[in-house]
Design goal:
- This protein is mostly helical.
- The chain contains 5 helices and no strands.
- The chain folds into 2 domains: 33 residues; 146 residues, no CATH class.
- Helix 3 packs parallel to helix 5.
- The radius of gyration is 23 Å and the shape is flat.
Length: 188
Amino acid sequence: MFVPLLLLLLMLIALAIVAGLIAAPIAIARHLQPSRPPSKMPESQYADDARRLVDEIKAALKICPIPYEQKTELLRQVKDIPDNVVRALHKLHRLRRIKKIAKRSDDATNADSVLNDIKVMERQIVGELRRTHETLLSVPVSLMKVDVARNERSLDRIIAALSETNQRLNDLADSYGEVRAKQNLSYP
């Protein structure tokens, strides 16, 4: 009686080990894949543009005669923007899916409240995506114009703007969860 139970326990342990060995490379591969925005959204172009502009900024920084500390800070701010843009696009996509569900809701008052919250968040996310795009567009041009003696202050402003943009994108992406938890929709 103990032998079959012992064999069963050993088999379960072996399965767990094999599953762990298989799951780890899959998790690593998923982590290494570039995150993609939802493709059927008109705003998805922002993600591609952000990646391209970050590459341009990195290339411009290699030859730009600005202090190392400013280069480091600029790179630190810039490197997170494409992922933050993708996160914001995913949240926007989810908001739009929830909006479709809310429009079909039986509880009109609750749905109207949720729809208003969603509309506000949609405008905020799209507006922030546009501001991020404009800020990123200005960085390579500013780096090309940079003259260390005269332009250090404008570069500091760009770094601060990128920092604020990253923070706002993160805040908007995180606030999606709050709206979703705030209202409990009834489905048709």
